[in-house]
Amino acid sequence: MSGFDLSGLTASFGGERVIGPLSLKVNDGEQVALVGKSGAGKSTLIRLVHEHVGRESSLVPQELGLVNALPVFHNVFMGQLDRHPTWYNTLSLIRPFSADRSSIKALLKALGMPEKLWTPTASLSGGQRQRVAIARAIYRNAGLLLADEPVSALDGPLAHLVMNELKKRFATSVIALHDVDLALKYCNRIIGIQDGQVALDEHSERLTSADIMALY
Amino acid sequence: MFSYPTVRTSLAFLAIAVVGLAFADIAITAANPWRDLGNFFLGVITPNFFSSEGLLTALLRTVAFAFVGVALGSFFGFFLALVYRAWPVRIFCAFIRAIHELFWALIFLQFFGFHPLTGVLAIAIPYSGIFAKVYSEILDEADPEPGRLLPPGTGRIAAFLYARIPDCWAQMRTYTAYRLECGLRSSAILGFVGLPTLGFYLEASFSQGLYSDAGAMLILFYVLIATIPLWVRPKLLPVYVLGAPFFLGEGLPIVWGNVERFFTEDIIPSPLKDGEGLSGLMSWAGDLMVEQALPGIWNTVVLTQVALVATGILALLMFPLISKHFGGPVRRTSGHVFLVVARSTPEYILAYILLQLWGPSMLPAVIALALHNGAIIGHLIGRQTNGIRLRPDAVTGFGRYSWELVPRIYRSFLAFLFYRWEIIMRETAILGILGIYTLGFYVDSAIQNIQFDKAMVLILITAGLNIGIDALGRYIRSKLALQTMPTC
């Protein structure tokens, strides 16, 4: 159960409606890209979906939500705090277990930063921080991925590497993207948002980047 | 200018202080004040480190009491901080921190006697209340986002350890280190009520006119505080905390009968004990109010207001001493030394010294409070001006001071000043023990006369007054939209 069917989604800021009312149904196996101008309401929609589907989803928010004082390992490990007893988590804070160390190291390797396992998060670059938040979401391993511009700070080849990784690991996802080519390549359904409403909803095979550019 | 609320508030406080000054008892009553002051300074520059072996023991005890008291305070304060949202906890913490360390010591002395527990609790209890408040403020400021992103079903302890503590850790550590420095000062002045710390030996040397011994003690104390970064190391901390309890000294054994008597007899208002009923209690309370509480409150408030404004003026005068916008490295270094000395000396010791030299009046108290607190605030805003970049063609000299710097730092200056308002009042009350007619004087005399019931009521009144000033200070700070970091 990783798809969802939500209706009557609305959000307002300071009395002004920024989203909806709209309905959104995502089936299992759909990898949805949310596209649209900045300020169209993509981030708000991701937040709304996250609130409604409960927390049974892996979220990568735009602000990342990293604990800056902790090393990369612990920030990723936080994705599975619910699977271990308190004593195990507390001990891991001081001296992580080797099984967790090797699995998180492998994950970071897949994201192209294996050497950063023990680096404090505060001293990472923007792109590295983004990948730590992605690693945490992958490690969390929920059925649904909700990600808000997860590769905005990554250069070309790295962005492809990470998107590929996300596509492989999450069968169902909703990802806000401003890069139209990435959206077409790594998602099978494109939803265009304009002024808080769904302006486009189509399978990606049936779209070209020119169709999407009409939204901007 | 007068349209600025900060300026109007400052002028109002200045006016109150001027009126207060008219009522305050400001005088130098000693026959030869300047000669005594001269002798004292002569003593400081000719320190005698070898007069008695008691000096090193006193230093050791001072450090030991500070470590045990601050460690316990930080431990309990941390757990109180976790439940600080509950208003009974807030009130409890506000109450225990509104009572000065010396008052706590005077209370515990009555039933634990000169047992080390008296000194330890006198520091640990008020510090718990302070730590609870500041730790909870630091924890509240932590970024809530990582906590929201944790998988559902994460245990509360794990969530706290991973998503809250790490981001607060550095700030909590800095604050605790700052409090350790305060703890050393508190520990030193506990000697004035008879505990075996520096204050005890300072008082003894002073009363015998041994200014060189007193000077040696003060110099050792400054060195102790100035070298904190060298000898307080994270790795050594467990050694200190675990070792300190063994260096508190033996003291005298606790007589448990005294403890019981204190709670069941001593602090019960005497009319109730003697069966005089409600009317007896009313007239007892009335007498206490008119003869002791009201004069005590009046003098405490007057002295606080005068000292507060004097602190502000001194802080504004002293911050250029360490500001890199003025003068050269030589003057700044000596400015630093002066400010470190002024803020490392507890108000109580400064007031004690000045009272010995000038005779009893409010003047030594005002100068002591203003020097100590003014140096603290002057240091903080002076450091702040070092972060200000002026345009290359900015005016220099007094024009730079009055046009470029003071307007820029004035708001944070006021924030610090109002933050310290409550601290100044707490100290003002306690200075009464030295013979100025503030609340502490009446508390101390009640204890001397073995009227613990009256002393307790007066201490409660003092605590209430502090809580009131704290609330008023917070109200003014929020009205003027002033912010401070807790480390002041």
UniProtKB/TrEMBL annotation, chain A:
Keywords attached to this entry: ATP-binding, Cell inner membrane, Cell membrane, Membrane, Nucleotide-binding, Translocase, Transport
Location(s) in or outside the cell: Cell inner membrane
Gene3D superfamilies in alphabetical order: P-loop containing nucleotide triphosphate hydrolases
Keyword Transferase tagged: no
GO molecular function, one term: ATP binding
Membrane topology field: Peripheral membrane protein
Listed PANTHER family: AMINO ACID IMPORT ATP-BINDING PROTEIN, PHOSPHONATES IMPORT ATP-BINDING PROTEIN PHNC
Protein name (database record): Phosphonate ABC transporter ATP-binding protein
Automatic annotation (TrEMBL), chain B:
Top-level taxon in the UniProt lineage: Bacteria
Membrane-spanning segments: 40-60, 67-87, 102-125, 182-202, 214-232, 239-256, 297-322, 334-355, 361-381, 423-443, 455-476
Compartmental location: Cell membrane
Keyword Cell membrane in annotation: yes
UniProt GO cellular component terms: plasma membrane
Membrane topology listed for this record: Multi-pass membrane protein
Gene3D superfamilies attached to this UniProt entry: MetI-like
Signal peptide (residue range): 1-24
Keywords: Cell membrane, Membrane, Signal, Transmembrane, Transmembrane helix, Transport
InterPro entries associated with the record: MetI-like_sf
Protein's recorded name: Phosphonate ABC transporter permease protein phnE
Organism: Marinobacter nitratireducens
Upper taxonomic lineage: Bacteria, Pseudomonadati, Pseudomonadota, Gammaproteobacteria, Pseudomonadales
